């Protein structure tokens, strides 16, 4: 267990020693802190924005950037070893390929949690400073959720979408050894999933209910008992879980069998 922990530590060093990683985290912190200030200075006195409204708007926007940055790290996780020519040095060590891939994936998840923590810390801190707590917020109860609970449910749903996008990028990185392809495909899915849903609407096509695009955004279920095509939250989670298992299985099978001598 200690050896595996050191393997994860090594993978974290690879991520966090890179200047790129710190630039991404600083940009995320700046954007999260900037939006509440912009909202504050661009609204007049009669339209004071409350703490949770400001924080929710910031989270909604900043999570796009957070997802892009996490997809970049995921795309580079395995493909980068092939690009830099370090994969053979990694595989001659006394660890199985499964442990090596698992350590890379855990390090990716750690990065996604750190970046999300930065987003929440700076977003909430800035909203706390620049927003009117007296004005409340969206203050209203949403489906029984209080304002703070509602915003953190939105954050949880956004993180699940980020988690799946990163899993797609990680799989493509493992299978095709191309970080560029992993970035393009995973971000294409992220930005075009709404178009797919519009074309293959689950309300018109029953089979579309089994597509991952229809369920990646779970925030619909925070305000409603049913989602696209009348799907329930349990059904949506089951569909996402199946896709996640497939993504991980493909990553593991291909990485374990890949011939790195070529």
Task: Give a description of the structure.
With 262 residues, the protein is mainly α. It is 73% helix and 0% strand.
Give the tags.
single chain; 262 residues; mainly alpha
Short description:
The protein is mostly helical and 262 residues long. The protein has helices at 2-16, 19-41, 51-84, 87-91, 97-130, 147-176, 179-199, 220-223, 233-257.
H and E string: HHHHHHHHH
**Percent in strands:** under 5%
Low-confidence stretches: none
Alpha carbon gyration radius: 20 Å
Shape: globular
What number is the mean pLDDT? 86
Structural class: mainly alpha
For this entry, what is the oligomeric state of its chains?
Answer: single chain
Number of helices: 9
The residue fraction in helices comes out at over 70%
DSSP strand tally: 0
Topology:
Blueprint (H helix, E strand, L loop, with lengths): L1 H15 L2 H23 L9 H34 L2 H5 L5 H34 L16 H30 L2 H21 L20 H4 L9 H25 L5
Helix pairs in contact: 1-5, 2-3, 2-5, 3-5, 3-6, 3-7, 5-6, 6-7, 6-9
């Amino acid at each position: 267990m200690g050896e595996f922990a050191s393997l994860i530590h090594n993978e974290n060093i690879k991520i966090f020693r890179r200047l790129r990683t710190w630039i991404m985290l600083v940009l995320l912190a700046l954007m999260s802190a900037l939006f509440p200030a912009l909202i504050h200075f661009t609204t007049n006195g009669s339209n004071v924005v409350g703490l949770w409204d400001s924080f929710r708007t910031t989270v909604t926007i900043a999570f796009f950037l957070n997802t892009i940055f996490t997809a970049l790290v995921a795309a580079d996780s395995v493909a980068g070893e092939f690009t830099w020519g370090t994969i053979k040095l990694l595989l001659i060590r006394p660890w199985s390929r499964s442990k090596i891939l698992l350590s890379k994936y855990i390090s990716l998840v750690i990065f996604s949690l750190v970046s999300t923590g930065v987003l929440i810390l700076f977003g909430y801190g800035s909203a706390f400073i620049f927003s009117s707590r007296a004005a409340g917020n969206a203050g209203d109860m949403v489906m029984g959720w209080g304002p703070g609970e509602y915003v953190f449910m939105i954050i949880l749903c956004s993180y699940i979408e980020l988690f799946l996008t990163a899993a797609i990028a990680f799989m493509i990185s493992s299978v095709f050894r191309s970080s560029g392809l992993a970035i393009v495909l995973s971000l294409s899915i992220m930005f075009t999933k709404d178009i797919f849903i519009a074309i293959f609407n689950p309300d018109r096509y029953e089979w579309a209910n089994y597509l991952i695009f229809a369920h990646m955004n779970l925030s619909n279920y925070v305000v409603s008992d049913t989602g696209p095509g009348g799907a329930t939250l349990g059904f949506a989670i089951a569909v996402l879980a199946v896709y996640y298992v497939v993504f991980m299985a493909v990553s593991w099978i291909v990485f374990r069998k890949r011939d790195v001598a070529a």
